[in-house]
Write a structure and sequence with these properties.
Layout: H1 2-9, H2 14-23, E1 29-30, E2 42-48, E3 51-57, E4 65-71, E5 76-87, E6 90-98, E7 111-119, E8 124-128, E9 159-162, H3 169-177, E10 184-193, E11 198-200, E12 206-209, H4 212-228, E13 235-241, H5 258-269, H6 274-283, E14 285-289, E15 292-293, E16 316-318, H7 329-342, E17 347-349, H8 362-369, E18 372-377, E19 379-380, E20 388-391, H9 392-407
Helix pairs in contact: 4-9, 7-9
Length: 408
């Protein structure tokens, strides 16, 4: 479990997460998308920004793809192109809300800035600051009714210094990147909690961390994928997309051409024509792996009265009749078979009819490619909080079930 905690700690942004996945693909060949495609047996991977796709081609003739899809991004606050301002003598970072974070959870926490910067020489560099920012709450004495409605613009701008002698924010970032501030052209930097992940609970059975949505799926998918390279008889794929939290409509998101490019170019390089490619897609499947909701003991009425998954009771199979999740009867049966094969308990989630559910990359992948897809994930509490909660044994079970899906 410490390896998972380290993975999260080393992945403060989607760009770092893609890099960390790549670091674990020992022996895999990097595929430059601007170069001819390599379809030799073995492991391959390619990176687009904060997204990464890895695939393994077996020695035997493969007729389909088995895909695990996840996403590397999490809600937070992105640094604006005009990075700072001064208010009442305080130096503040100017940020824009990314996705849908639970705003109040970000108050009174020390925050890191992490992501990528672009330099004048055209190169890209990953950077992570130390604890730098904080969004302080208003004291109770100045708001006796404790009824402040947080404004994303007015109340969520973090401070980092006070007084006339404070350094420029860009200078601080440059120091952490070991470059000069005048070498930085632009950036994609997001906030995350400076507190590291930790285990807690009566028996250390719970995980507390930011970005469990959805690094829990990225990590479990990666471990299952690496194990499956020993036994896979079909082409297995791990697709970790960026920008799921804002709709996926980017070149590295699930609504873009990233996955279809990899699958089609791989099939073409194997000598498949268009008709044979479509046949491969018809035989293929995808597991959309994204965090699920655990029943909340203080808000039970927000959940379906019967379908109430719990942390440390197994991965969750997600259904929605309006296709916010891609699961259907055949793909749900496929997932249940994988859980049985792995000896893993399975839970089901459907939302309360009065409480709309979210969505995932699952319906996007199914719609774009016509590949049968199922939506699953580990149950969380505090989803989209700065510090979410998951179960230790769920992570182990999820990895085992994903592995069974890839090889059985």
């Amino acid at each position: 479990m410490q390896r998972f905690l380290d993975f999260i700690g080393n992945s403060p942004s989607s760009f770092h997460a893609a890099f960390e996945v790549a670091q674990q693909l020992q022996g895999f060949t990097y595929q430059d998308e601007a170069m001819p495609w390599d379809a030799t047996p073995g492991g391959h991977y390619t990176i687009r920004g904060g997204g990464i796709i890895a695939w393994w081609i077996p020695e035997t003739t493969a007729s389909s793809f088995r895909i695990i899809g996840a996403h590397t991004d999490s809600p937070g606050f992105m640094l604006k192109p005009t990075p700072q301002a001064i208010s009442a003598g305080w130096h503040q970072a100017q940020v824009e809300v990314y996705g849908s974070p639970i705003l109040a959870s970000w108050l009174d926490r020390e925050l890191v800035l992490a992501g990528r910067i672009m330099l004048t020489d055209g190169t890209e560099r990953l950077v992570t600051t130390g604890p730098l920012l904080r969004i302080p709450h208003l004291a109770i004495h100045l708001s006796r009714d404790n009824d402040i409605k947080l404004s994303k613009q007015t109340h969520m701008q973090p401070l980092f210094a006070v007084g006339d002698s404070a350094p420029e924010l860009l200078e601080i970032i440059a120091n952490h990147a070991e470059v000069r501030s005048d070498e930085i052209v632009t950036w994609e930097l997001i906030t995350c909690d400076a507190q590291p992940p930790a285990l807690f609970g009566a028996n250390n059975e719970f995980i507390a961390s930011g970005r469990l949505d959805n690094l829990s799926s990225v990590y479990a998918g990666l471990q299952a994928f690496l194990r499956a390279t020993q036994d896979a008889e079909e082409i297995i794929v791990l697709a970790c997309f960026d920008h799921e939290e804002i709709g996926s409509a980017t070149i590295s998101g699930a609504a873009g051409p990233f996955l279809s490019d990899v699958l089609e170019r791989t099939a073409r390089a194997m000598g498949k024509n268009h008709e044979q490619l479509r046949q491969m897609f018809a035989r293929s499947s995808c597991v959309s792996a994204d965090a699920a909701h655990s029943v909340h003991p203080n808000y039970v009425s927000k959940h379906d009265p019967v379908s109430q998954p719990r942390i440390n009771h197994g991965p969750v199979l997600k259904f929605n009749s309006n296709q916010r999740y891609a699961s259907n009867a055949p793909t749900a049966a496929m997932w249940e078979r994988a859980c049985v094969s792995a000896g893993v308990p399975s839970q089901k989630f459907t939302s309360n009819n009065d409480v709309p559910c979210g969505s995932t990359i699952g319906p996007i992948t199914a719609t774009r490619l016509g590949i049968a897809t199922v939506d699953v994930g580990v149950p969380l509490l505090s989803m989209h909080s700065i510090r979410e909660m998951a179960g230790v044994v769920d992570m182990e079970w999820f990895t085992q079930a994903l592995h069974a899906y890839l090889v059985d």
